[in-house]
Design a protein that fits this description.
Layout (H helix, E strand, L loop, with lengths): L1 H10 L1 H12 L9 H14 L3 E4 L5 E5 L4 E8 L20 E2 L2 E3 L3 H21 L5 E8 L8 H8 L7 E4 L7 E5 L1 E10 L14 H18 L10 E10 L9 E10 L5 H9 L2 H6 L2 E3 L2 E5 L5 E5 L1 E2 L2 E2 L5 H14 L5 E4 L5 H7 L4 E3 L14 E3 H18 L1
Parallel strand pairs: 3-6, 3-7, 7-18, 8-17
Antiparallel strand pairs: 1-2, 2-6, 4-5, 5-19, 8-16, 9-11, 9-12, 9-15, 10-11, 13-14
Bound molecules: zinc ion (ZN).
């Protein structure tokens, strides 16, 4: 089987490179994915996916096979922006190709992984997809701004719950089994306004925030590593206040916090940690996790809580073992297993919904979001091979 997969993947190399270069030429920043989704849909139809549809949020779902067991290969099709164009050596939207490397925004994160996943469907079609499996390839939206939101929609509104999810984000062809989570918090203090000329008559909410900021700084130093994901962190990212005028004492103040979550740290534990700070107790400050209403390119509005749970798979989990076996069989060497530094849709598939999830993708993590965004042709082919071998290993 190894040779057969290798041979079909090699025969598809030109097609997958051409397709990736084309979708790089279609800008698709988060919330503006419509054009790229339409183009990817066409490709899925050309390849012969059995069902191809766009859900009301705008995610593209392609299904190959008709088995009861749904195995998902997820790739987000949105990208971050370009930043300062002068820092780019290549045009971010031309799909440049030199010495077997494809350049441009999204090449690495992660139109490359998506292209390989879509073409893995073609390999499986030629070999014959196992009877008991339906391969679901998703081109999901909004990941760069609100990772996981697309999957909250697919699972809760679309009523599709895969048995397992493989994220195709760049991993340098290593198996990834987790990542730190993150959340936002808002700490709010109240005061009483008075004229700025007689502050002693009021109660200044900003002064109540000051000791809390110092406690947060100390708290960050006390957080320690609880797992292979590394240490959790906390930092202040904004201070806001209200007052009837700039000549009046502030009657409310709020501190915005960014919290990165490691093993065992949850939304509740992190909120309680803040509520238990002496400075917060003294002034009876409130702590909330913000909620936002997000609009996708289709106009659908969907709420999201600013909480993206950490996730980590046991290395002995059967899904991780299957991935290791598929890698070993396909490439005749042992797979490297590790965790991602960045955040992915796994925050919902595994973190929120506890669906077994792993990651594997072409491209190096360090090129993501940089003006050097790139992926090698060789990686694309290897990823394609791995995805096909992995699905066949699961049958
Ligand atoms: Zn990504």
């Amino acid at each position: 089987m190894k040779e057969k997969i290798e041979q079909i993947a090699e025969s598809l190399k030109e097609d997958v490179v051409k397709f990736l270069r084309e979708i790089i030429t279609i800008p698709s920043m988060s919330g503006k994915e419509e054009a790229v989704i339409q183009r990817i849909k066409k490709e899925m139809e050309k390849i012969g996916y059995h069902k191809v549809r766009i859900d009301p949020m705008g995610n593209l779902l392609g299904i190959m096979g008709s088995g009861k067991r749904i195995i998902a290969l997820d790739g987000h099709c949105d990208t971050v922006g370009v930043g300062n164009p002068d820092t780019w050596e290549f045009d971010p939207f031309k799909g440049d190709y030199h010495d077997n490397i494809i350049y441009g925004r999204g090449a690495c994160d992660q139109k490359g992984g998506l292209a390989s996943a879509i073409y893995a469907g073609k390999i499986l079609k030629e070999i014959g997809i196992p009877d008991n499996i339906s391969l679901l390839v998703t081109a999901s939206v909004l990941e760069e701004d609100f990772e996981g939101l697309c999957w909250q929609y697919i699972i809760n509104e679309g009523k599709i719950r895969p048995e397992a999810v493989l994220l195709t984000e760049p991993s340098n062809l290593q198996i990834k089994i987790g990542q730190r989570g993150r959340m936002e918090m808002k700490v709010k203090t109240r005061g009483i306004s008075s004229h700025g000329s007689t502050p002693e008559r009021g109660e200044n909410a900003i002064y109540k925030i000051a000791p809390i900021i110092r406690d947060i700084e100390q708290l960050n130093k006390k957080l320690h590593s609880k797992s292979i994901l590394g240490k959790g962190t906390i930092t202040a990212t904004d201070v806001m206040s209200t007052a009837p005028s700039l000549c009046a004492v502030a009657d409310s103040a709020a501190l915005h916090l960014d919290r990165r979550l490691t093993g065992g740290e949850t939304m509740d534990s992190s909120v309680n940690e803040i509520l238990n700070l002496p400075s917060v107790k003294t002034v009876d400050a409130g702590v909330t996790v913000p909620e936002y209403n997000i609009k996708s390119y289709t106009g659908l509005v969907y709420p999201v809580k600013a909480y993206y749970p950490m996730w980590l798979m046991e290395e002995t989990h059967p899904l991780v073992r299957s991935a290791e076996r598929a890698y070993q069989e396909q490439f005749s060497q042992k797979a490297e297993v590790g965790v991602w530094a960045f955040s992915t849709n796994g925050v919902v598939t595994k973190g929120g919904e506890d669906i077994p999830t792993i990651g594997f993708g072409p491209g190096k993590e360090e090129f993501a979001h940089t003006p050097y965004d790139q992926v090698s042709e060789d990686d694309l082919v290897k990823a394609m091979e791995f995805y096909a071998a992995f699905i066949l290993e699961l049958k």
